[in-house]
Amino acid sequence: MEQESLFFSNPEAKVTGIDFVNELTETRDQNILDYLYFYNGGGVSIGDINNDGLPDIYFTGNQVQNRLYLNKGSLKFDDITATAGVGGQSTWNTGTTMADVNSDGLLDIYVSAVVGVNGFRGHNELFINNGDLTFTESAAEYGLDLDTYSSQTAFFDLDNDGDLDAYILNHAVHTNESFGPANIRNNRVYESGDKLMLNENGKFRDISVQAGIYGGANSYGLGITTADFNNDGFTDVYIGNDFHEDDYYYINNGDGTFSEELKTRFGHTSRFSMGNDAADINNDGFVDLITLDMLPEEETVLKSSAGDDNVNLDRFRIEKLGYHPQYTRNMLQVNKGGEFFAETALMSGVAATDWSWGPLFADFDQDGSQDLFISNGIPRRPNDLDYVKYTSNEQIQKKLDKTTIVDNEVLDKMPAGAVTNYVFKGSGKGQFENVTNKWIANDSIISTGVAYGDLDNDGDIDIVTNNINAPASVYINDFAEGNYLKLKLQGSDLNSFGIGAKAIIYTSEAAQVRQLYTTKAFQSSSEPLMHFGLKQGETVDSLRIIWPGNRSQLIISPALNSTLSLKFSNANDSINTAEIFKTRSKFQFQRSENFGIDYEHKENTYNDFDVQKLIPHQTSDLGPAVKVADLNNDGKDDIIFGASRFQPSVVYYQEKGNFRKKNFKALASDSLAEDASITIADLNSDGLQDILIASGGGESVGKNKWLQDRIYYNSKEGDFQKSESFPELFLNSSVIKTADYDNDGDLDIFIGSNAQNYQYGAIPKSVLLRNDNSKFTEVQSEIFENIGMVNDMIWTDIDGDNDLDMMMVGEWMSPQILENNNGTFMKSAALENIPLNGLWQTLIASDIDHDGDMDYLLGNWGLNTKLKASAEHPLKLYYKDFDQNGLTETILAMEKDGKYYMPYGLDELSAQLNQMRKKFTQYKDYAGKSIDEIFSKDELNSARLLEVHTLSSGYLKNNNGKFSFRAFKDELQIAPIRAMLSYDFNKDGRTEVLVGGNYFGITPYHGRFDAMGGMLMLNQDKILDSYEIGLNLSQKSVKDFSIIEISNKSYLIVTINNSEIEIYEFSF
Q1: Can you tell me the distance from the alpha carbon of 670 to that of 684, in angstroms, rounded to the nearest whole number?
Q2: Which of 312, 340, 133 minimizes the C-alpha distance to 1030?
Q3: Cα-based angle 95, 545, 200 (whole degrees, multiple of 5)
Q4: Running DSSP on this structure, what letter comes out for residue 411?
Q5: C-alpha dist (Å) from residue 40 to 22, 37, 358
Q6: Which residues have C-beta within 8 Å of that of residue 16, sequence separation ≥ 6?
Q7: Model pTM?
Q8: pLDDT tens-digit profile of 629-663?
């Protein structure tokens, strides 16, 4: 049977003439043990050096000469290195960039080198193009002959003065000076510190210090992307740093200086940050970013490789050393209107591509959406856990210092890391489909540097990779189905290729945006062209080109499948880029003063994972509780905040448009209880509002008095006294709600519980308390004591019989509907046949589709997670005392390729279950084993099994009392939804729903859920994103939205875990 042709073909070296091999030879002085970046490989640059219309290719070699190949057409290349004089004199070359450095219209070649470590000699070299296929090395003449630990250099116009400046990316090596607190970055070190070089009439001057560029001993720079991220017309810079140092995000201030703003703009980043690239993946006009790491997809490699830090070390690094959260995986950072970035790689399907070096975005199949190519592989894996364990042995350490023989013995302990490159097809909405097997051959070579260009001038994008110990790969695009538009720019006198220009095409489908920067991926630069793909049948109305400095030209109806040559001299319009990419809608939230409500929630120091190491998340950090109500019957809204342990609840009374904190002895004396939920209601029918607080917090166990829920009765004097007669229930309560369900004139109470403390997986008891003249009696316990791990509940008339039914949600359970039949509750069968077990966090009633009946919106865990669940392959939880020590364990497992695997490495599992260390003496014995190869059938069958069928947030659509579940759109799946508010914000007579979330109480394996900025649902399909409505709640763990009336005006109060509250006014 004939094999189906792949999307990309790989012509062999004997056909193309491209026979470059980056041959690595391990010697006593040059090996991975003595130079940690020995396996980083070389780079590749693509550009037309002789302006004959054919892109040429330049490779850098680490221990071998650099090589230049001239494109002769028909995919034939000649090696002209010797005659061109570009082989290079440095011992160890790294990155390469083609740029017109001397502004003569010809591409020059700049090569970065590592100098001064392990006997490496030389300097960064600049090969100036003489125009006759020869080059002259001139780095010293231009001030660019640096002798540092260079990775790569990007040329761009930093100050919009017309000429190209340079950012030289350097990397550190491990020394005593490179470890320690983050502020090491403030002490400049010549060898490892990055350099920003200003072009002053052809001579480059180092302006790093005055420009605000870090350059410390911990600058492990491996990736650089230049782009105008905030669309203000100036080029910004993103730097990817390996190891413990944070990445850097430099916003261009437009005055020759930069502000480093990573911590405020990004929730978290890749930990071992390698190459990166930027492109607009969702066609919203703002450039998005990917950074690469080395998370393996395959189970055996995954479980035998070092991963993320443990919880305590991670918290120490962030809280004590001052680093930003970093996790071991690729990060796809979606640009939210230039305000902040929402990280979505897990949801988008691009988080795990193994030992990855260089990403490239381009529309390979020409369907209007950016696709993604990733270069991969390493000769040996230095993070293999068995290898790390072996080399940490003291005797081996001593031998390593003395002999050369043991070096090879040690090197052989490192497993090979040759893996295929990856390619993903983009959807245009931020989602990617892995098409590696359909688009490229599984070569399992080691590719590092990667660049793109149109090598055969057929209009589509081809790829070239620089490979270690194998010939370079050429990927020829054979099956691009759509049409294309290709732009080649003739820029101003000093920026002849138009670096920094933007182009927008307006089509019958949408708008597409490109920015022209050539240095991208890893140690490489791509052809200086702009390429647009268009679906068959899609037409282009117009094209707008915007040059650096905002001069512009509009071209009407450009011809498809053509290459347009656009000249700066023809750009006669002036345009404000910020106006074109305007993001705000008329819906606006604006931060207001706090009116004296100065409450700040402070989480007490407690780590659930110290006790239960394998649980999916904490239960101690789900506060704070909050309630807006008129506590003192003066007609004005007051507010009460619940607190974490060791802090009392706080009441604020409204007086003349401001708020005054009021202390109550009864509340203060219960500060050892954690307030999980609060309700304000008249519970003893005396006309005064009482306070009802549910105690939870995940810390106290058994019949600890701080687990008791509490009523504080109000008095005519305005004081509150705790009731001594309230039932002692000792639940880990999560939600408390009141209603007169039996229509006898007083308010009854429902208390839901979400966990049995220290026994996550055991089903806790929830309670319905009937109120008989202020005497509360537990009723109908047979329904409520096993209903599930309840997180939230509402009273609502679901069946239209004019009494109050219940709906509740929780974890490892389906939403539960309890119908009220004359005061007796019965489980409804309405959702019986829908597999809807979730990790439900919250719910509200709202007619989201505006069809006249009540729908129910359910906040789930979201899809931006390593957890996987479906009805066919549920997420599983096994609950049992596996080691028979009297304490239960919680074991998760999820499906991959037809088998179930645990998310834990051997270290994590054996920290809870000691017997695993005896069973698996080496990591490789454990790696790749499914859960039923680790535990016996009997062990698993005798455990309690809980399941989750969906992690999607969504809504129960009401069709005349029958319900169907509809998942929300992807933008609402980027984090757990933990707060929703139905309210008519724009006074149009219809309610909108404000949605918030995020959550940090998880292990570094899961990362952090911090991407949700807050969104406004106008209906089930129309959603306004945070940057459109002026909210930015990213990096905040939002617990609650409340409306509060202050001086006859409505304000929004946002309650946030472990943070101060925020108040917003809104005008629509």
Answers
A1: 21
A2: 340
A3: 50
A4: H
A5: 11, 5, 11
A6: 75, 76, 77, 474
A7: 0.98
A8: 999 999 999 999 999 999 999 999 999 999 999 99
